[in-house]
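Incident log entry.

Two folding requests arrived from the same account within the same minute. Monitoring flagged them as a possible duplicate submission, but the sequences differ. Recording both here for audit purposes.

Request one:
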Amino acid sequence: MAMPTPVPLLPDITRRDWTAELLNALPDDGNRYEVIDGELLVTPAPSLVHQRTVGELHLAVKPYADMHALDCVMSPAAVTFSLRREVQPDLFVLPTLDGRFVRRFTDVGRLALAVEVISPSSARADRYKKRMLYQSEGVPEYWIVDPEARFVERWRQGDEEPEVLVATLAWMPHEVAEPLEIKLSELFRRVHGE
């Protein structure tokens, strides 16, 4: 007689007391789990367009970050602000310590940039919950990238409305640096294979 295959337990998404510790005890089932103020956010595996967008952004941002002693990281990688706040931005930039990459987010405890590429399942969380989180945690700049509509919403500290960019995205994390300029039409053409 064959033994039945155990069915993994699904997390109780209705509870409001999730912590980073509980989050990290969940099984790896292909979903992305994040917690903001005790609320569990569950996102299914990303689409190919989503992943190509993250890849193209990484190719654009990483060389600039390297030149300015910053560390550009793609998800999955945890950013744990507190016991009840752990997220995985699609792309993020960390400061370095004396020009060296840190081993854990807690070594620096802050981001220079957070980027989320929206999809139908993540748009509400990215535009509201994560934006509020990043602004409250002092992240100087947050980009919400919409590959289907081909624009970027840029949020900065204190913004109540995003700056919507369709032509060029310029980022300057240090006042003395030349800005990074990303031509959005070119980026989205590569993402869509045009």
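Request two (distinct sequence, not a duplicate):
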Amino acid sequence: MVGHLQRNKVKYAVEIFEYLHSLDRIELLKEIEQKMERRGKRIKTFIQVNTSGEKTKFGISPQDVDAFIDEVLKTKCCEFWGFMTIAPFICDEGIIRNCFRRLRQMRDRSEKLNIS
């Protein structure tokens, strides 16, 4: 599933999807864990990071990534598969590239820590 997931829709999403590309908050993680545990299955998750800092975008802040990964790794039903972000809708290619560069740096750091 790509896109923001509301907690009240988790029960439907875990029945349909194998991958969630927008894990962006602890409350959602706990709800997914609860629903998946009942099913005895695991879901592959991508942590959504707000690399642009835009208030209109979902995602955790870059400085909270390490703590959030720790929470995901503690669960029995969510597998951490990587990161995703949404760059701002602007013409400045430099700003857009910087958003994805920051995400790549997070990925590289997590690989060095054997997280992903």
